[in-house]
Design a protein that fits this description.
This protein is mainly alpha-helical. Among the domains are: 87 residues, no CATH class; 89 residues, no CATH class. Helix content is 55%, strand content 5%. A four-stranded mixed β-sheet has the order 1-3-2-4. Helix 3 crosses helix 4, helix 5 runs antiparallel to helix 6 and helix 6 runs antiparallel to helix 7. It is elongated. The relative contact order is 0.08.
């Protein structure tokens, strides 16, 4: 028999040898597999074919598994050997291969482990979605709603595995991104004007002063006027960027406009509804 390409991290003598579809082999004990998978419980009851070479251990092929995904599976099933910090961020492009292994070999326990072990909100959400556990999905959705963007690989995987869940997630994210609570915005914007920006007096302090400087005594005077304008745009249903652009468009001094834009951006970010409230508002929409 030709020499085997055995992964050095999984090469303990005496363990059975499992071979991925791309030829990489892993020595891994039966116990975690038998405990978590009916496939491997059944496999242990089937006698292996006799080996021509008595000194050579038989190889068990797992033709639905790539070596990258199979290694991750063996990592998460070996918590004593591979503590949490060793389960490194997993490349998104290989997550589908993990799902294939879980489906082919009845290893949903791996998805449960990744849900618990991963610090990546997208991996956590995707695992919860694959497990079709609504409680886990909604717990994971909080961080995903707040994330800047969904990675294309994750978005494609969600579209393949559960288009209904993907559509709902996008609706929740869009609501969190665009909806502004007027009361929170007004409160936060005025506090920012008084505390964070109150020293920005006499418009922008440029020398010579900018042309609109005679229109207000200090930056708070300008801010309070523009906060009132911003609220009218919010109540009209406009999104954050439209509101900010419209407010600063009437300020002639670029420095003052930049400062006002930052104030409005900070206030808008603080006035978004909480993720708990968004989930409650959309609770009637199914995930599947």
């Amino acid at each position: 028999m030709a020499s085997l390409n055995i992964d050095p991290d999984f090469n303990t003598p005496g363990h059975p040898i499992f071979q991925a579809a791309d030829g990489v082999c892993f020595r891994f004990p039966w116990e975690p597999l038998v405990t978590n998978s009916s496939f491997f419980r059944d496999l242990t009851s089937i006698p292996l074919p006799p080996c021509d070479d008595p000194d050579t251990q038989e190889v068990i092929p797992l033709l639905s598994a790539t070596s990258i995904a199979l290694k991750l599976v063996f990592q998460v099933l070996s918590p004593n050997k591979w503590p949490r910090q060793k389960v490194k961020p997993f490349p998104y492009e290989h997550l589908e291969e993990v799902f294939i292994i879980a489906d082919a070999y009845d290893l949903n326990a791996v998805l449960e482990c990744l849900y618990k072990l991963s610090n990546d909100p997208f991996v956590v959400f995707t695992m919860a979605m694959a497990l079709r556990d609504v409680a886990k999905i909604e717990l994971a959705a909080h961080a995903v709603m707040r994330a800047a963007q969904i990675h294309p690989e994750i978005d494609f995987l969600l579209w393949i595995k559960s288009p209904v869940a993907r559509a709902k997630l996008h609706r929740l994210r869009e609501y969190h991104k665009t909806h502004i609570t007027v009361k929170l915005f007004k409160h936060k914007a005025k506090i920012l004007a008084l505390s964070k920006y109150h020293l920005f007096n006499k418009s922008c302090r440029r020398e010579p002063p900018c042309s609109p400087s005679t229109k207000w005594d200090n930056f708070c005077s300008l801010a309070f006027k523009e906060i009132t304008r911003a609220i009218s745009f919010i109540e009209a249903g406009h999104g954050p960027q439209v509101i900010i652009d419209a407010v600063v468009a009437g300020i002639g001094c670029p420095t003052c406009a930049g400062r006002m834009s930052q104030l409005m951006s900070d206030a808008v970010g603080s006035a978004r509804p909480g993720t708990d409230g968004i989930l409650k508002l959309h609770h009637f929409e199914p995930w599947f």
